[in-house]
Amino acid sequence: SAPILAAHAVTKSFGSTPALRDADLSVAAGEVLAIMGPSGSGKSTLLHCLAGILSPDTGEIIFDGHSLNTMSENERTLVRRDRFGFVFQFGQLVPELPVLENVMLPLLLGHTSRRMARAAATALLDRLDLSGLHRRRPGELSGGQAQRVAVARALVNQPKVVFADEPTGSLDSLAGENVMDLLLTAAREQDATVVLVTHDARVAACADREVLVRDGEVTDYATVASVDPDG
Ligand code: ADP
Ligand code: ADP
Q1: For 43-67, what is each residue's pLDDT tens digit?
Q2: What Cα–Cα distance (Å) separates residue 61 from each residue in 101, 125, 224?
Q3: Mutation pick for ligand 2 pocket among 96, 101, 114 (CB with most ligand atoms within 8 Å)
Q4: Which residue, 67, 30, 65, 25, is CA-closest to 42?
């Protein structure tokens, strides 16, 4: 079947610093893909290009059959808002708003009514066993709780693809495992594809497939889970 997301010969430089060189990557629908590599190798740049946050200098990003490059900025914004979910390392929750309101935000930005947004956010928090946190502010949460709320927020709009950039980077290993469990379970329940940047091999081991970025070049290596016996 056609990939849900692909990068074709993508290059991106910042001034004279090349961050991605001729990167090719294909992500199957429903797949959990981990992007690994040393610091400064281009992982975040690749993620941001795939997510339509950064525009490549050359090459193309195809999401669900549509080129992100040829869309208007406005169309890309709608794709990010309605089709993608995002989890970052930290600092993504709005500190003034309680957990429930934070989880409602992506829906409110998409012009869902407050009533519907509240119902959807409440149901998701219940399903993820986070309902006890509804009224807390982000400053009252542990790092692991905040990241689990961030996962809920990333999934509340039923995205096709969830992008996660070092989602466990600020956590100890137990809290990190809990966040990854929640992300993967919730994504699977919603048939969402997950594209994950991590330098942690234990986090990457949760993925269906890993790719390695080195000096801006992407190497695709199959893990046991994704080897096709007939291939
Ligand atoms: P990683 O996520 O693997 O740590 P990045 O994609 O963040 O790597 O960075 C790849 C390269 O691009 C690095 O040399 C980095 O310094 C550079 N870079 C990334 N973002 C910017 C930016 N906004 N401005 C200038 N250089 C950048
Ligand atoms: P309820 O009907 O449950 O009282 P409200 O809509 O009155 O719901 O508020 C829900 C929560 O959101 C409350 O904790 C309230 O303090 C908080 N809240 C509402 N608006 C804001 C805002 N603009 N900034 C911060 N917190 C807010």
Answers
A1: 999 999 999 999 999 999 999 999 9
A2: 32, 33, 27
A3: 101
A4: 25
